[in-house]
Every structure is written in structure tokens, then in C-alpha cells.
Amino acid sequence: MSEAAESAPAAAGTTSVRRSRDVPLLVERARTGDPRAVARLITLVENGDSLLPAIAAALAPYAGQAQVVGLTGSPGVGKSTTTNELVRALRARGHRVGVLAVDPSSPFTGGAILGDRVRMQDHATDPGVYIRSMSSRGHLGGLAAATPQAVRVLEGAGCDVVLVETVGVGQAEVEVASLADTTLVLLAPGMGDAIQAVKAGILEIADVFVVNKADRDGVDATVRDIQGMIALGERGPGQWRPQVVRSIAARGEGIDDIAAALDKHRGWLVEHGELRRRQEARAAAEIEAIALGALRARMGSLRDGTELSTLATKVAEGAIDPYAAADELLAQLAN
To answer: Which residue ranges of the chain lie beneath pLDDT 50?
Structure first.
């Protein structure tokens, strides 16, 4: 079910699906695994189309049915290779897999190379795999703004597991943790990652640490550093202790250990009610983002009028303070 299927010759009725604005039809086709319908839905989501509320409503019954796994780490640690091998392992178990690979976009043109899609061509013809590259479009945090809704599309398309691969991130770009049920943080020896791992942001989001390229010198020291920092963390009885797994993804080595760590964490999430809590936290973040987006849109309409400029003049003249002006602005937005 790869996105590459979009370029295949069109069958009868396919062209209408590619350009369709019939949400029930698109969702129905997506449920059957039609890659063009899935691609169309994600495109509408990415573009912030006016159909987005209707799409969200149609997909709501399928929310929370997929295991969402985030993969993050510094550039060059092997995220795409690990994702590719994880897809292979999950398919061997009979799972339908969706992949959202977020690539950095140009600050000048807004475009992206979308190299992750190139690296995962092993699965391009597999109808049980859907791969979608997404440009971050300048959004910070390692994801694209549309990623949460794209995850919902893949859940609606019947994916059992959704893998979300972030752009190469630093210790402050940890948004994937708020989206995923399980977060894998990839590191590699000899790249300074042992030091990066001890910094609070990356350390705190990881459910599983994957030390990739474990055939390199210094792997033992990297593993010791991570385990040492995990040991220093404060955890109550029954709290999850992050796992540390070694792998050589380019050879397919250690992938089964990563899959086993994912299974173990999934079991812990279910047993302790943490899965529901994370899903509710994710929903709360989505609601907040949608509400803030609506407020920003209304703020934009105010900028086109006189209210904001009038308040700005008053603040600049010292007639009122900015907090009072903000209160007035919020009162106008509420009307």
C-alpha cells in the first residue's frame, strides 16, 4: 500500500478518487486499503483543507486502534534503516504497517527531498505497507503540523502499527513523545550521542533506547552511559524503566530485540492503564492545537480590521498596558 502506488496507471474510477472531495467515499476506499484514497485523505489533511473537520469526524470511530511508535534521534544514526527493518519484522508477524517519515523542509522554498521514501523502496509493492513522506514545512519539534491527523488517517485505513519517523532532532525537539504510544530514541557510538542522551529532553521521552551501529568502537561505553543515566532517574514502584537495545540495522541485526522491547512496553502500557492516559493526553493536545489554530485565524481577521491597531496605538502611547489590551482583544474574540 505504498505511496508510490500513486504513480501507477489509473484503474477505472481511480482518477475520481485522486481528486475526490467525497469524504465518505474516500474513507470507505481507505478502509479497503486503496492507497490512492489514503494519499488523498492525507493530502487534504496536510493542506488544511476545509474538509478537515468532516474527515476527522469520519475517522473518529477508528481512533486508538493502531499502535503508534515514534522513532527519533540525531541525523545519521540510522532511523530510516531501522524503520525499514522494523517494517519487515512487523510484516512477518502479519501486521499492516503505516509509515509517516517527516523530512526537513527548505526555509527558502518550503520543499523537501523526502529521502526517507527513497530508502524504503523495499516495501514499495507490498499492499500491507503504506509509506508517506511529509515535509515539516518549518514546523518545529521534529514533526509536521499535520502528523497527528495523518496518523488518524492510517488508523482509519486499518494499519495495526504506525511508525512515525521524525527529522533528525536535538535534545529540545521532542514533540514525537506526545504523539506516540512508544518512543524509540536512536543513538550511535562515536557521534557524541552518549552525551546528548544524558540531556533531559531526550532522556525523558525515551521508552526504548536503541544503540544502532553497534559494530562501531565505543558501543559498550555508550550503553553504559545510557544505563547509568537511567539508573539515576527517579521512578516509583511499577514505573517503566527504559530498555536499552543494541542493533546493526544495516545488517538486520537486533531488530527482533527492538520488536520485543516494543511488545514489552505495550504490555506495560495496557497493564498499568498508561495507554489510555497517553491516548487521552494526545487527544487533549489535538483539541488544544485546533482551538489555538482557530484563535490565530480570528486574530488574523482582527489584524485586517482596526481593533488590533487601535489597541496597539493605545499601548504605544501609554494609555493602557499590554495586559489590559490583551484582555480587550480576548473579549472581542469571544464575541
So the answer is: 4-12, 106-109, 111-112, 138, 140-142, 172
The residues, ordered by sequence, that sit 6+ positions from 113 with a Cβ below 8 Å of its Cβ are 103
3-state class percentages of the chain: helix first, strand second, coil last, to nearest 5: 55, 15, 35
Amino acid at 286: E
Distance from C-alpha of 38 to C-alpha of 45, rounded to nearest angstrom? 11
* pLDDT for the residue numbered 40: 94
Distance CA 309, CA 247 (A): 58
Listed residue (161, 165, 170) closest to 195, CA to CA: 170
Find cell 488590533 and name the residue. Answer: 308
DSSP string over 163-230:
EEEPPS--TT--GGGGT-SEEEEEE-TTTTHHHHHTSHHHHHH-SEEEE--TTSTTHHHHHHHHHHHH
What was the pLDDT predicted at 114?
A: 52
Prediction pTM value? 0.83
Helix (H, G, I), strand (E, B) or coil at 235: coil
**Rounded Cα gap, residues 213 and 219, in angstroms:** 8
- Please choose, from the candidates 152, 155, 118, 148, the residue with its C-alpha nearest in 3D space to the C-alpha of residue 133: 118
Q: Give the C-alpha separation, 262 to 265, whole Å.
A: 5
Crossing angle between the packed helical segments 274-304 and 255-271, to the nearest 10 degrees: 90
d(CA 123, CA 57) in angstroms, rounded, equals 30
Crossing angle between the packed helical segments 147-156 and 274-304, to the nearest 10 degrees: 130
User: Coil, strand, or helix at residue 40?
Assistant: helix
Helix axes 23-31, 52-59, angle to 10 degrees: 40
Sign, CA dihedral 161-164-170-171, equals negative
Helix or strand run (H / E) with residue 315: helix 307-317
